[in-house]
Amino acid sequence: MTSRDRAPAAGTGTDAATRGGAVPPARRRTAVEIAGLLGFLAASALVAWLGSQATISNVTGWYETADKAPWSPPNWVFGPVWTALYTAMAVAAWLVWRSRSPRRRAALRVYGVQLALNLAWTPVFFGLYPAWGSPALWLALGIILALAVAVAATVLLFGPIRRTAGLLMLPYLSWVVFATSLNLWAAANN
């Protein structure tokens, strides 16, 4: 029996390293994955919070009296829906990030593009209307159309990497298409 074949003596080797403060690789991986999930959730929360800054004062301002599509839900619906969507988006991105797929970088880049477009839409639609009027709503329509394309691309890129990730993005795509119809109505009627 060689020295490599023998189990480490109590208090030495691997057991000592684990008890002595060194973190085992599996535990380190778990910590990194949890940190990654928290990072994706934080990025979604940041985008949501930044968007809300343009929304808060204008939802009870010009938007309250705007001509809205007959299928517009009440304002209180948007907060819970967006919270669920941002959470699902973050989990989907995290699932792709933790995969070992060689396509994950490209998929996450497209995810970043759609997140940036998501962030751009809110201040244009809600924030610029008081100053620009209808042209702001038409500009917002262009942004949300680009957002719909970017989200669709994200779904198509996420799905083959992690099916669950692609499925988690589908409600978001549906909501963006629905929001596009609301934006179009607002642009045409205000």
Gyration radius from CA atoms, angstroms:
23 Å
Task: State the helicity in percent bands.
Answer: over 70%
Q: Oligomer, anyone?
A: single chain
Q: What's the number of extended β-strand segments? A: 0
Helix run count: 8
Structural class: mainly alpha
Head-to-tail CA distance between termini: 85 Å
How would you sum up the major sheet? none
Low-confidence stretches: 1-18
What is the 3D shape? elongated
Mean pLDDT: 88
Order of helices and strands: HHHHHHHH
Beta-strand level of the residues, as a percent range?
under 5%
Observed structural traits:
190 residues, single chain, mainly alpha, 0% strand, elongated
Topology record:
Layout: H1 13-19, H2 25-59, H3 62-65, H4 75-97, H5 104-127, H6 129-132, H7 134-161, H8 163-189
Can you put this structure into words, describing what you see?
This protein has 190 residues and is mainly α. It contains 8 helices and no strands. It has helices at 13-19, 25-59, 62-65, 75-97, 104-127, 129-132, 134-161, 163-189. The longest helix has 35 residues, at 25-59. The relative contact order is 0.12. The model is unreliable at 1-18 (pLDDT under 50).
Q: What's this, in brief?
A:
With 190 residues, this protein is mainly alpha-helical.
